[in-house]
Queue: 2 jobs
Job 1
Amino acid sequence: MSIRFTKDHEYIRLEGDTGVVGITDYAQQQLGDVVFVELPEIGKTVTKGAEAAVVESVKAASEIFAPVSGEVIAINSDLEGSPAVVNEDPFGRGWFLKLKIENPAEMNDLMTEDQYVEFLKTIS
Amino acid sequence: MAANAEKLKTTPLHARHVAAGARMVPFAGYDMPVQYAMGIIAEHNHTRAAAGLFDVSHMGQAFLSGPDHQTTATALEALVPADVLGLERGRQRYSQLLNEQGGILDDLMISRPAETGEDGRLMLVVNAACKEADFHHLEINLPDTVKIERADGRALLALQGPKAVAVLARLSPGIAAMKFMDARAANVAGIDARVSRSGYTGEDGFEISVLAERAVELWDKLMAEPEVKPIGLGARDSLRLEAGLCLYGHDINSETSPVEAGLAWSIPRRRREAGGFPGEVRIRSEIDEGTLRQRVGLRPQGRVPAREGAGILDAAGELVGEVTSGGFGPTVGGPVAMGYVVRDFAEVGTPLSLVVRDKPIAAEVVKLPFAPHRYKR
């Protein structure tokens, strides 16, 4: 399984040429209790680094950026009724959306798991 | 650590918060817990179900002292629109320090000690962000006969929720006899304290003032009780918002009058008629003729919160107001907000929209509070 991370604490997990996007455990802890996730429309094209979703926590709203460019082919409709699942299981049931990856080379710009772990040490 | 690096002040309970794993944030110049391990929603719910313990020692405590109650009360009445003269021994009142324009400098609690030996004394609790300005304002405006004595050597804890009285009664027999807005000296777990039955959550609860050197001991004794959990500033904000209570600097400020803020209930008839407080011309005319705008409760449809600064639009899409406080209400189970609207749109049930990320979200004016008050009157 290939997974990559951004400096904004999004992850993208490869499943074939599809990327499953969500936020990391560090991000959900920083945000606090999630009360709502605004997801994009299926079919929307996102560019790497552009806003793909918005997470509303109790205290504030935070933008989630597309780790790579692509087309939104699925969104996690479970989040509407149970936004707290983002806090409980950010890598599993708390996924946000799936992208059909336009340019697989963009994945190489992202951090590997080891690099992300090192990155967390510099900011914690 | 962060507190030293940024020269933030700390309360006597700082080490307890850090040891409990609290996320600490700067607030009014203090390093304060915004939440503990439970998280804001769980802390909020716990307070409404059991007993939440808050460190509010950052707030400003002070005593006014004069030769007798009449002198001290009269002096304070020149600065606030409350009935202070008529404040009985052992009672507390909510009011506002006003400026010459009738705007609010700060809101505060005023209590009169129960003991006859303390005649002429009043205890004040003001907001942390305003305390320096408030104490300065009081000092320069009080007559020579009345002194202000800052109580920086005191800590303040709040125990709030339906189980608070049961907890406190174990540590302070007789405390259950207090009614909402009573204030008295009491011994709590062997510690001399000034206790009021009041708070900032809409729940039954108590605020407990002790000398700073006894604060940790009091905290530990309360935390040892099974119903008690520590609650941070994040939940303090969601609790007071659901209770429809104003937050200074957001819902009320130096430009808002108590009348447009919906606080005219704290200005009794004697004061309305006689005046004698700053801004009386504006305030009396607002009471008589109504205000241009009013603070209202707002319920966005759906789940997206509308936060401070969001524009309020009428059915035609015209701007008629602004959100001053907003977020998620765990007890209500959805987003809640307060704001000011032009008075034509203040009626309960008025359909409005709130602008969030440039999109209008349908909402309506609702009656405050969002969660019913459960004071023990």
Job 2
Amino acid sequence: MSGLKGFISQLFAGANSHEASSDESLLARYREGDGAAFEILYARHRQGLYRFLLGLSGSTELAEEVYQETWLSLIRSGSQPQGRATFRTWLFQIARNRLIDHWRKHGIHQPMHDSYDEQTHALTDEQNDPEQLLSLSRDSQRLEAALQALPADQREVFLLRAYSDLDLAQIATLTETPLETVKSRLRYAQQKLRRLLAEEVLT
Amino acid sequence: MTDARPTPQDPLVKHFREQSQSEPPAHLDALILAAAHREAPKPKPNLWQRWLRACQQPRWQVAFASLVGVALMLALVQRTPEQLPSYDFAPAPKAAAPLAKKEAELSTARSLAAPAPAAPMAESAAPMQSESFSADMADEAKVSKRAAVPVKALDEQLREVIHLQKSGQAHAADKLLADLHKRYPDQNLSARLKALQKN
């Protein structure tokens, strides 16, 4: 009897439960032939992935190219996230690797592989009051310029934090960087962005 | 140690999320979704669908048809009644012989008790007694009876004639003899009577 009730509730609540499913179960459903599951998965991550690639590459054309390659490789690979990796980590890992491959293929200098002294770029900025935050620039071009002014490693961590919604441990796993380094990069990135955006408002 | 979990109030991150307006172009969305639908694996059919597909293949159709045929034959064999009355048109000697014998004895007894009308009654009584049988069966019994009666019953009746003649009842003897002539027109009653008288 309870099984029948469960079946009926699944029948009538199919769409809702579909949307409430985890990324991993949606991908598994897609691998079994459920095209609608992929649409939900794509709708969840399309914006964040695109903004991450756009911010990291600094080029619309390159971002679009890598974005397309990432999704198509996911569609065609037939594989699943391995181990403890979530779908989100896996997706952004694919995109990041594709971008690095593109830079390597075209002989472009890979900014994220620079030896980088975190401390030299760290400016003390202990101010974090609401008034300063309210004065941050809302101009998208200025926001973009401030992002591009960040060192690549800091920018990558900040973009992952902003658009992938991964926690710091996941970002550390994805970038194969120690957790403490990730924390410091994020902190320095935030300090510089606050300063740059506040300065932009003042000027 | 700093908590690795994202801080819920991260104003700068929130500010960037709110202000960022870049979106993937529509043509990329369409291209990716079309590729996803085109290259989605075909759903695995369930057991019922696989069975239906198997039924549509010729070799399985033959196999299933054969199986159904055998099942129907078995069902028919199982439902057939064990003993049905046989409607053979050929005479059944084993069944008719005892009946003929019985009828002959009955006829003899009746002829002894009532000489003249007994035989026709016996003949006409046969079909009535075998009421569950067909007319053919009754005729067969009659034929058998006619074959058996002259052997014994005729001699006895002729002895009765002799007995009546010896006892001085000539009229009754003549009447019985005349009756026997009618009943057995193909028999040489005179010769048979003389033979009996000699014995």
